[in-house]
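Hi Y.,

Following your request, here is the sequence exactly as I used it, all 194 residues.
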Amino acid sequence: MTQPQQPNALLAHPTVQRVIRRTAGELAGRSDFASDDFADIVGALRVLVGIRLQSFDAARSGLHTYATHIARSAAATLIKSRHRAKRRGDFSSRSFEDLPPDPNGDARCAETISEADAARRRGADVRDPIDDLITRRSIDEIVAKLHPDLVIVVRVLREDAPAAAADRLGISRHRMRVLIAELREHFRRGGLGH
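Below is the corresponding structure, written out as tokens. Let me know if you'd prefer a different format.
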């Protein structure tokens, strides 16, 4: 075994720095990371890679190969921790609506606009309550005309995804897709859908 090198010297090596920046760029391009997170990702990767560089042995592999391997491993660790944080609810983001009121007495942003205006600004589809009522009644009329077995499928699909509904009803997923296609045809004939 060769003499181990100083991990700080290896961490400052241009090859290692290039691998860290490339890996951070790939992570920042993922949907679960923002491009603004690039500096934070680089810092986290430097820490994780720096720890693992202590066990680098030049006799066993090249620096680029070793750095690439541990950077990918560190990236997987960051992705797992990000997903874990999101599942736990530790992922912190604050809404402007949650900020305390301004001391000079100005109203919070959420208090100045209606729900419909806020939805329009977010680009959401603003539904008219009357249209919603008409749609619900149309759906109820179509469902009332269905075969009783299809009514059961509709009720289960309101609560579960198709795969879970198929398991719950004890039918195959293929059969569930066939039933969903049949339901879509009934709704299309009833004036809903394209």
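The domain at 129-189 is CATH 1.10.10 (Arc Repressor Mutant, subunit A).

Thanks again,
Q.
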